Amino acid sequence: MGRAFEFRKGRKMKRWAAMAKAFTRIGKDIVMAVKEGGPNPEANARLRAVIQNAKSANMPKDNVERAIKKATDKDTANYKEVLFEGYAPHGIAILIETATDNNNRTVANIRSYFNKCNGTLGTQGSVEFMFDHTCNFRIAKGNLDPEELELELIDFGAEEVFEDEDGILIYAPFGSFGSMQKELEHRGIEILSSGFERIPQVTKPGLTPDQVADVEKLLEKIEEDDDVMNVYHTMEESE
Questions:
Q1: Predicted pLDDT of residue 188
Q2: d(Cα 141, Cα 189) in Å, to the nearest integer?
Q3: CA 59, 173, 42, 189 torsion-angle sign
């Protein structure tokens, strides 16, 4: 198995639950998708994907419709996605995806977390290059063979296809999202959920329990922030 498989195993740990502000995150995803491509799911591939994710998270249909309506209001005009980069103690790189309507507030909060936990907030581009920006799709296994499917989808960007307890996961580069989504839909394959992730190219092993605790303290503070959507890092995680 490749790095996407190992990364996914690590994300199944307790941090998965810590970042489970599912409805709030999906609501912000809807806002960003509508701002990017409009409120019609048929004409907006990103919004179509977010709505599917909402269904997977059991988000009520009324909530989804309200979020789409809210996304067209002028109150959300200032929402934007902002990426933060920095280092936790012990040389662990951290990449933070946020969606915010008040960048000054978000910058101040993120900086305070790094300062309080002996980390360093970096400049743009300081750690982003250490992560591969990927897209992923989860589909039901049915009668599909992951190895055969991978061969069939290589031309559409598939780099890694594997099965877990919840179905089949397909990973591809960030830029292949549209072509992969279109091909799966063309084949009549139901997409259970999809999204984007940043997979560390190299992880740092060998931290002591105390050092891991230092890093965890910073990660937890960041993840609790309402503006934070996703947090990625280079610390090796064990199952």
A1: 93
A2: 10
A3: negative
Contact 196, 137 (CB under 8 A): no
Rounded to whole angstroms, how far apart are CA atoms 115 and 209?
21
Hey, what are 163's tokens? 């099965």
DSSP 129-160: GGEEEEEEEEE--TT--HHHHHHHHGGGT--E
Residue 168: CB atoms within 10 Å: 21
DSSP state of 125: T
Can you give the pTM of this predicted structure?
Answer: 0.84
The full length of the chain comes to 239
What is the strand order of the sheet 191-200 is part of?
Answer: 160-164, 167-173, 131-139, 191-200
Mean pLDDT (the chain, rounded): 88
Distances (CA, A) of 115 to 95, 121, 192, 221, 232: 16, 8, 40, 11, 18
Query: What's the pLDDT tens digit per position in 86-97?
Result: 999 999 999 999
Q: Which amino acid, 177?
A: F
